[in-house]
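Table S2 (text version). Query chain:
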Amino acid sequence: MNNAEKIALLEGLLFLVGDEGIMLDEICEVLELEPQEVTLLLTELEEEYQNNTRRGFIITKFAKKYRLTTKKEYYSFYLKLANNKFESKLSQAALETLAIIAYRGPISKPEIEDLRGVNSDNVIHKLKARELIKEVGKSEIAGKPMNYQVTEEFLKVFKLSSLSELPELQEAKLEDDEELFK
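Corresponding structure-token output:
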């Protein structure tokens, strides 16, 4: 495999992992390369993105993970797209996640995923982009993940003056539902 193919594979891998990012050792394992070689490839790709005005991405490193992100200088254009998408309806997954955050917030992503039973990375990202939820500090659970709660924009969109106006949840009572389990 030549260098150009390795860089193409690396770029595809970074695109595939999205916001979650990927650690150096994971890249090495997937591409079957040594850390020094992967570091050189990352540097080469970073320089290509940085020095090429025809590219809209950069590679960022956070918490020992690498990911592709959009260039900040184009943010105003990306915001236009995001604003257009705000007018679209929320998906079932987004509504489900939003309800969990509204009723249980502040709540962490692992707690949300535990309740939903599925990965919620993309949904949380989209809800943050729509400014319906925000980060509000670290959780006390293992790993100290970020906590989320709904925003004033959420209240505005759903025409609420406060969260106390949310309909009450009906708690499932085992005694009342015993017939369901017979």
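Notes on Table S2: The mean pLDDT is 84. The domain at 3-71 is CATH 1.10.10.10 (Arc Repressor Mutant, subunit A).
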